[in-house]
Amino acid sequence: LNVSYLYELIFDESYSSYCLDLVLDYNPITRMDILIGLCDFNPGIRQDTNRYYPPVSITGGIDYAIGSLVFGGELSYLIHSDDFTASGGVEYTYRRVLSIRIGVFCLDKVTPTVGLGYHYHGLTIDLGFAQHPYGLGISKHIGIGFNF
Fold first, then answer.
1. Fewest CB atoms within 10 Å of the CB: 51, 62, 107, 135?
2. What is the CA radius of gyration of the chain?
3. Cα 13 vs. chain centroid, distance in angstroms?
4. Residue 62 buriedness (CB in 10 A; 0-12 / 13-18 / 19+)
5. Could you tell me which CATH class the domain 2-146 is placed in?
6. Could you read off the pLDDT of 20-52 as tens digits, one per residue?
């Protein structure tokens, strides 16, 4: 279970909402995770008298760790738009505290992504950055999570 807060700033307009992810994690062998779930379930973002719904997706992914490196990939079906997305990358974790990752995200175009994570006693703070595929700048993601 994951709860996210979405905030979007486009020019002078800002929008926000929260999202819920329901994901099953299966470990068929040591150091491998297979995940499937419903991601970004949300009540929509209110804009004046309209409501915009960020895309809810059915997502599956797999990752495999070799030492401090984790290789992963993900495929998502966006329910509202009937599109598919794919992403993949590699993450390196130093002393189980600091992680850095690099990857790609594919919808209509392939775009590079980078990220940084800090882990402390079950708490994770995550920063992610991706180049917008249509020249609208850099998308920024900030996440806070807790493992229990």
1. 135
2. 16
3. 23
4. middle
5. mainly beta
6. 889 999 999 999 999 999 998 887 776 666 777
Q: Is pLDDT of 90 > 90?
A: yes
For the record, the structure tokens of 118 come out as 């800090």
What b/e string do you get for 122-148 counting C-beta neighbours within 10 Å, with b at 16 or more?
A: eeeebebebbeeeeeeeeeeeeeeeee
Residue 1 has pLDDT above 90, yes or no: no
- Tokens for 97? 């505290």
For residue 146, the surrounding DSSP H or E stretch is: strand 138-146
pTM of the model: 0.82
What is the helix (H) or strand (E) element at residue 28, kind and residue range? none
**145, two tokens:** 């999570």
**What is the CA angle 84-116-65, rounded to 5?**
70
* Residue with tokens 């850099």, as numbered in its chain: 138
Distance CA 38, CA 58 (A): 5
Q: What is the token pair recorded at 24? A: 């099953």
- Cα atoms in the Cβ-side hemisphere of radius 13 Å centred on 85: 20
- Identity (one letter) of the amino acid at 60? G
Distance, in Å, from the CA atom of 33 to the CA atom of 36, rounded to the nearest integer, reads 10
According to the model, what pLDDT value does residue 94 have? 97
